[in-house]
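Consider this pair:
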Amino acid sequence: MALTRKEEERALNADEREIVAQTRHPAVQNLPDDALNTLLKRLRDQRDKASSHANRQRREMRGKAAPKGAEPSTGSAGSSLKTMVLAAALKRLNAEIQRRAEMAKNHTLIENAQRALELKMHAQHNNIPFNTRHANQGMHDIPDKEVNSLIRPAERGRLRKASHVAQAKRDASGH
């Protein structure tokens, strides 16, 4: 269920509003990684606290737990709403952390590919054939002894599957 900002502000106190505001789009992208991890920890603590508070209130309403105050709670809607708001903020924060991890992974992949290309170009500039067996003058090229099959791989797979099905039919019939 989507919550409006007005409902979120009503459910949170000032400190929690500040934390949740930092998880929204323009602010979350400007945070450095260490601040993001600190915010994640604070947000998890707040969510866990609100969740346990809502659970305690529900137990008080059912009569399963002694009231914390002078009389038992009559409802846990506010605490449940606060838990939902904090959980949504936590979800946004986790999505941003995941986005940054994916972006870092892509950058690493690109850097590795560029380095491999540089090494390959450098090897070609030194007139060293790529992937060769001619290390010295005394070595000879050994041709592959593997014969290339003329049967298409798809046809080979189709025949293999057909024999599996036929064998399964024979096994099922008991002959």
About this structure: The mean pLDDT is 84. The first helix runs from residue 5 to 11. The chain has six helices and no strands.
